[in-house]
Amino acid sequence: MPGWGIDSWGFTPWGLGQPEVPPGVNPPLIVLRAPLPDSQNVPVNAVVTVGFFDLDLDLNTLSAKVYVDGIVAYDGGSGFSSGYSGTTYYATGKLVVQLVKLNGWGFSEEVVIRGYIEDSGGRIADDTWRWNTLDNPVCYTGLTPLPAEINLQAPMVQFLDLEPVRQLMLNAALRTTTSVKNAGNKAARALYQQAFNTEISTVLNLFVPKDIKALAVTVCEKQKIMTIDQQLAPYMKKVRVGIQQLYNLGVLSIEYVNSFNDYLDSTLYNYRVSAVCNVLFLARSIEVVGT
What domains does the chain contain, in order, with CATH numbers? Predict the structure, then answer.
């Protein structure tokens, strides 16, 4: 998923400046669509993200709507419809809507998304795009864990503030752990995939190899990222302590510390969860190297 830049509310620039213009001159725009139009093999737990922007800074947020297959999934006046959950973020002239389908998208399914918004002068942005989900997959059995995934299932011995975070993430990674075979390996694989889901995973280059085959398998029991993020909120202070400890040991440069903090402060919950996964894999790899 694209990021939003390095500013107070995101991770890649919008690509649009904000020159001084007379009010009411420019129509609103849809500047972010995720999954991207015409994407194929989209995961069934994909997050839909729609970003609206207006150069005149006069979005009518109450008029915003996101449709899924012709049905309103989000309305700026009433919120998310039954069957959907999500978050919104507004800064002057910018509105981001993220949503998930509570029971997931179907396999081999075409999904049609429509974004709509007006500005204070009644000018509109209205666009429709579509993408296709994965074919029904063969689920990961949990029988071929990577060394880093095995390491993650062992307790922290040095980064003790991260130990409750590690336990939480493994417990939260799957929709259920009571009747799942090889649940630990599957949970670790789900977290491994989420770690490499964003650009900050470059921090792992020297410690945790990127395995393309492991990233391509489907963990059918994988929990929705939004659900994991909600459980993480009380643990963010401990995550930041772990980041500082990695910096103090010389493992992280100040640039990476700043990037981690940007990710943890992001309005995009998949970025927050990915950052935490990277911290955990990095910390455990440092512990293993030191033993």
Answer: 29-132 (2.60.40.1220), 147-290 (no CATH)
